[in-house]
Design brief:
254 residues; mainly alpha; Rossmann fold; 3 domains; 3-stranded parallel sheet; 52% helix; globular; Disease_R_plants
Length: 254
């Protein structure tokens, strides 16, 4: 399953690594793997029946869940022939594995349990004998694609002042605060407002579970009506299709 999922992600053009595919053999939870985890925007964790048997996997998971808190990393769990409650509460084969870990890795058990509890509480995919694996893989790849920035983060650093302005804009957004921020970018046409907003979106959108970038709002609303923009916004945020907005007022309510 993991090999097929990995191939599907790569085919979609998503830069992906598996710890046993990209990193040199023998480099367990070392600096190279830690760096790979920390630089990833999304961690796709596949929980299998024997996942908890591996102290290596549990070390990885603990570090991934730390990155959720410190770097805003997104975690997408896949429960492959395992009940999410077994992961969350360390029951069944997970409980059996932890009884062994309590004897051999007592100093790590606490952090591993906490990581499994947090990951097990996340919504994800549950795959069992009734699931169509190919369809599930397609859905997973689609979700991962939608969560990644639609724009490249390779901003043209030669644009005058773009780096400084981008840093200033990001500081005003106060990403780590719990409040809602609305930032206006004002200036003459051709002054780089869209470029600046696009660059900011590309750099921070991965921190949020839902995000979208709507461009050319005036032109699009004049051409197709504001309702079409509202439909596009809702489809991107809700990750669904065929949203119908009957009126501008109805769109605001949704």
């Amino acid at each position: 399953f993991v090999d097929h999922l990995y191939a599907a992600l790569a085919q979609q053009g998503i830069q992906t690594y598996k710890d046993d595919e990209t990193l040199p053999r023998g480099e367990r939870i070392g600096p190279a793997l830690l760096k790979a985890i920390e630089e990833s925007r999304i961690a796709l964790v596949v929980f299998s029946e024997n996942y908890a048997d591996s102290s290596w996997c549990l070390d990885e998971l603990a570090h991934i869940m730390e990155c959720v808190d410190t770097k805003g990393q997104i975690v997408e769990p896949v429960f492959y022939f395992v009940d999410p409650s077994d992961v969350r509460k360390q029951k069944g084969k997970y409980g059996k594995a932890f009884r062994k870990h309590k004897r051999e890795n007592k100093h790590k058990v606490g952090s591993w349990r906490k990581a499994l509890e947090k990951a097990g509480n996340l919504s994800g995919w549950v795959i069992d004998e009734n699931s169509h694996e190919a369809k599930c893989i397609k859905e997973i790849v689609g979700t991962i694609s939608s969560r990644l920035p639609t724009l490249t983060t390779n901003v043209n650093k030669d644009l005058i002042g773009i780096v400084t302005r981008l840093q200033d804009l990001k500081s005003k957004l106060k990403i780590k605060s719990d409040g809602v921020r609305i930032i206006g970018i004002w200036g003459v046409g051709g002054g780089g407002k869209t470029t600046l907003a696009s660059a900011a979106y590309a750099e921070i959108s991965h921190r949020f579970e839902a995000h979208c970038l709507l461009q050319n709002i005036r032109e699009e609303s004049n051409k197709h009506g504001l309702e079409k923009l509202q439909e596009k916004f809702l489809e991107l945020i809700l990750k669904t299709k065929n949203v119908v907005v009957g009126s501008e007022i109805e769109g605001k309510k949704q």
